[in-house]
Write a structure and sequence with these properties.
Blueprint: E1 4-6, H1 10-19, E2 21-24, E3 28-34, E4 40-46, H2 53-70, E5 78-84, H3 93-109
Parallel strand pairs: 1-4, 4-5
Antiparallel strand pairs: 2-3, 3-5
Length: 118
């Protein structure tokens, strides 16, 4: 991944969930928040509801491969958290790549407005 590092700390995930915006569909949800850095950070979660460890790791590999393919079209300087939902087990990286390019890029290009709600 050219412009991306791994988001590891819990505070980064929590910031994306609470303060960031999200875009999703039936089988995938993406939370994103600007990080004011010259690179993006990527986090992937796959809960136990998806299946056993083999299924969860496959979901993470699919998301990572799709992100790698469409990384050039995404804006730089965001924390992104991909959350796999039920139904993603049947998808391929091409499906996830189409979601990223058709829905996520459009939402990330919109101006980010901070609200004062807590």
């Amino acid at each position: 991944m050219l412009f991306t590092t791994v988001l590891k700390d819990n505070s980064g995930f929590t910031r994306c969930y609470r303060k960031g915006r999200r875009v999703g569909c039936d089988w995938l949800c993406v939370h994103f928040f600007p990080n004011n850095m010259p690179f993006s950070r990527l986090g992937i979660t796959a809960g136990k509801k998806l299946g056993n460890a083999v299924v969860r790791n496959r979901v993470k590999r699919i998301i990572r491969a799709a992100y790698r393919q469409s990384e050039q079209s995404l804006p730089i300087g965001f924390d992104l958290v991909f959350v796999g939902r039920n139904g993603i087990q049947d998808k391929t990286s091409c499906d996830v790549c189409r979601f990223i390019e058709n829905r996520l890029v459009k939402e990330m290009d919109k101006p980010f407005v901070r609200s004062n709600k807590k």
